[in-house]
Amino acid sequence: MTLGKRILDIALALILGAILLLPGLFIALAVLLSSGRPILHRSERMRTTDEAFQLWKFRSMRPDKSDAGVTGGDKSDRITAIGRVLRRTRLDELPQLWNVLRGDISFVGPRPPLRRYTDMFPDLYAQVLHSRPGITGLATLRFHRHEERLLADTRSASETEEVYCRRCVPRKASLDLIYQQNRTLCMDIALMGETITRLIPSRR
After folding, report:
1. Overall pTM > 0.90
2. How far is CA 95 from the centre of its chain?
3. Which long-range contacts (CB under 8 A, 24 or more apart) does 138-142 make?
4. Integer CA distances (angstroms), 185 to 6, 89, 105, 178, 179, in order
5. Nearest-angstrom CA–CA distance, 44 and 39
6. pLDDT, tens digit (0-9, with 9 covering 90-100), for 56-114
């Protein structure tokens, strides 16, 4: 990560943290009142193929100790009512500002994978994770909605895993590597701008 990118991350995280502090408290209260504790969900993610960290989100699903892998149709019944709203607006990711400040992730980069996938595809993720993982990125913007549609039709954990590994991991990795080969501070700013515009409801 370049010094300029890190300075931008810290400055933006501090500004957004101040602006979104009150909305974040309201979201925390809404999660608590609607579905109880815990308010936050933490998940082990990988910064490199052998370096893990804890990624924080507002909890959007009912807890399950046996939970593993990505979320597909097999887990849809565990998503809470407020969780669906948080996921659709990506407000569940507000706590990741803390991860940005810590340096675990950047605002722009490949989404940090679960350890199970870096173990399955070590050579691929060794390339992808040359870039610091991020909240948003080229793969997130170009493939995330298609990924959601693919996984929404799965009805078992094994089917979700098969579809994700076969149809999502390679496509996302190819986009992440395109970003890696062309990344600049201006590109990061453009991707962040596109992310914001996608979160603003369109008027029809």
Report:
1. yes
2. 11
3. 138/175, 138/176, 138/178, 138/179, 138/191, 139/110, 139/111, 139/171, 139/172, 139/173, 139/175, 139/176, 139/179, 140/111, 140/195, 141/191, 141/194, 141/195, 141/198, 142/175
4. 10, 25, 16, 15, 12
5. 17
6. 999 999 998 888 899 999 999 999 999 999 999 999 999 999 999 999 999 999 999 99
